[in-house]
Write a structure and sequence with these properties.
Helices cover 45% and strands 12% of the residues. It is built from five helices and three strands, in the order αβααααββ. It has a three-stranded mixed beta sheet with strand order 1-2-3, covered by helices on one side. Helix 2 packs across helix 3 and helix 3 crosses helix 4. It is globular, with a radius of gyration of 16 Å.
């Protein structure tokens, strides 16, 4: 992330987790960054060809049952609500388009969870002291596309 945004080590408060899933510990980490360091921008950045999103799609289409680790299942279960509705659309017939839309849907789901899953973060967002945006990093081009939560 520091390389993508041309920043030095320690210049950004970075939380890395497969699939950009938002759990209580991630919310707490973001609250800490906002409250302790005055962080004003939170970027939830997914990437093309995300393996966690792909694993979630595979699990929805053909459940693995008890074959998956409980820890991996916890990631898949947090991504599932973002991805599952897409399988009820025409995207189900186009794996590449499904993957593209599912990755972005998952980022939107995570940004919304951060915006509304914490009274502290929601308060700062409402007071225009914090912006939470979604982005996608292209593994192919190295470009970052900000697509969710940008001001007017």
């Amino acid at each position: 992330v520091e390389l993508v945004f041309d920043q030095g080590l320690g210049d950004l408060f970075v939380i890395r987790i497969a699939g950009n899933v938002v759990s209580p510990s991630q919310i707490g980490s973001v609250e800490f960054a906002v409250e302790k360091f005055g962080t004003r921008l939170v970027v939830v950045m997914g990437h093309t060809l995300c393996g966690a999103v792909e694993a979630t799609i595979e699990e929805i289409i053909q459940p693995a049952g008890g074959e998956r680790s409980g820890h991996l299942h916890s990631i898949v279960s947090r991504i599932r609500p973002a991805v599952e509705p897409l399988l009820e659309t025409e995207l189900a017939a186009d794996p590449a388009a499904l993957m593209e839309k599912a990755t972005r849907a998952n980022v939107r789901y995570a940004t919304n969870h951060l915006r509304h899953g914490s009274e502290i973060l929601e308060h700062h967002v409402q007071k225009s002291e914090l912006l939470i945006v979604g982005a996608e990093y292209s593994l192919e081009t190295g470009a970052v596309d900000f697509f969710d939560g940008l001001p007017g």
